[in-house]
C-alpha cells in the first residue's frame, strides 16, 4: 500500500470555509438532540464549540452503524456522527455556539459509534448548589465533563497562551529545551518536594527546571521550557496544584533584572494579543475581560509596596517591615495599580535574601535583599524571577551560609566553574495565568486533570 500524504487535510468545502448554499459533510459528537413536531435540532460538538443542525421530518434521514434507517429519536447525546447537509445562514444566540452565523440543514446523519451507558453525563445539566460540590463532580468525572463547552474554552485559551509563549520566545532567539523531571536535588529548597524511590536510591520530582534552564543559558544563551513542575503542597487551596505547568524562561548577557522584567512584559503583551485574536469566541463564552497591560508597567520594591498600601490606608493591617507580601496586600496593590496606572500587572522587586532561593543574586547595594521579583496579576502571583548568581565562588559562599552542602550540587556548580554569563529568568504558572486571564477563581479549573492532596485520578 502507498499512503498519499496530500490526504492528511480535507480538501474542498468544509464547515470552516463554507458559505450559505454549500453542501458540507461534518463529523462530531452529538451534544444535544431536540425533537419538535416538524423535525428538530441536533447540536453537534466540534473542537471549538457547538454547531446547530436542523432536521426536517420530510427530508432528513438517519442511519445507524449498520446502515439501517432509524428515527431522529434513535439519536442520543455523545454519539459520534457524520452529518451531510446544506449550509444556511443563522443567528444563534447560545454563546457556546462557535458556529453562530451558520447552521446545517440535515440531509443525512450516519452514526459512527455510540455510548454504551444510557446515563451519559449531561454537560448541559452541570449545575449544582454550591461551587465545591460542582467542582468535585466535575473533577471526579473530568474525562467526560471536559467536553462541556466552558471547560473546553478554558483549556483552549490555555493552549493559546502556551503557543503564544513559545512563538514569542522563538521569534526572539530563545531555544526550547526539555529537562528531566526526575532529579537528584530539589531546586527551590523547602519541604514541598516529592520523594521517590529510583532503583533503591531516593530521588525527587523536579519542583522547577531552575538548574537545567541556567545550564541551558551556557549552551544557547536564551532558553525556554513548557513542562510540568511538582510541589508537595499539603494545603488544598484555590491557587495551588501539586502538579502544574511551568512556563520557564532564562536569558544570558543581561545587564540587570530589569532586562528580564521588560522581556516578560513584552511577552505578556504578545500573549494577550494572541488570545484576543485567536480566542474571541472563548473569551465571549467565558465572559472574560481582557487584562490591561500598559506600555509602562508599575514595578515597586517590596518595601515600597508596604509603604504605598499603608500611606493610602489600603490594607486593614500595617505590613511595613514584613519579609513578604500578605495576600491582602497582593489584592490591594493590584487594585491600586489598576486604578492609578491602568495595569492589571504589578512587578514587586527586592525580596529579602533569606526568603528567596539560594540562586538569587543578592543586591550589591543591600545584600540583605535580592535582585528578584514577583509579578502579580489581578491579585495573584503568577511569576517569580530575577537575576541569578553566575560565579561559582558566590554560590559556594551562599550555600555554606545556608548550611547547604555544595557537594550535593556538583553538576550545577560545575557549570559555573566552566564559565557562565550574567543571566536571569522567570517562570509563569500556566494554570495561574489562565485563571487570572479568564477571571476563574480556582486554578484547578485551568488544569486538564488537576492533582491536589486528595486527587490523583482521573
Ligand atoms: P516559584 O516557586 O515562585 O519560582 O514558581 C513560579 C510560578 O509557578 C507557579 N506556581 C504554582 N502554580 C500552581 N500551583 C503551585 N503549587 C505552584 N507553585 C508555583 C506560580 C509561581 O509564580 N524557579 C523559580 C522561577 C524562576 O526564578 O525562574 C520558581 O519556580 O505562578
- Beta-strand content: 25-35%
Within the largest sheet, what's the order of strands?
8-12-13-20-19-18-15-14
Give the low-pLDDT segments. Answer: none
Q: What overall form do the CA principal axes indicate?
A: elongated
Small molecules in complex? aspartyl-adenosine-5'-monophosphate
Number of helices: 11
Class inferred from helices and paired strands: alpha+beta
The termini sit apart by 39 Å
Number of strands: 20
Question: What's the average pLDDT?
Answer: 96
Instruction: Tell me roughly what share of residues is in helical segments.
Output: 25-40%
What does the main sheet amount to? 8 strands, mixed
**Rg over CA atoms:** 26 Å
Multimer state: single chain
Brief synopsis:
With 458 residues, this protein is α+β, with helices and mostly antiparallel strands. The chain is built from eleven helices and 20 strands.
Report on the structure:
The chain has helices at residues 131-140, 142-145, 149-171, 210-220, 257-278, 280-285, 302-311, 327-341, 392-401, 410-417, 430-438, and strands spanning 23-35, 39-46, 49-56, 61-63, 69-70, 80-89, 102-113, 175-176, 182-183, 195-198, 201-205, 222-230, 243-252, 299-301, 345-349, 362-363, 366-370, 372-377, 380-387, 423-429. The chain is of the alpha+beta class and 458 residues long. The longest helix has 23 residues, at 149-171. The model has no long low-confidence stretch (mean pLDDT 96). It binds aspartyl-adenosine-5'-monophosphate. Aspartyl-adenosine-5'-monophosphate binds at residues 188, 208, 210, 231, 233, 240-241, 244, 246, 381-386, 425-429, 431-432, 443.
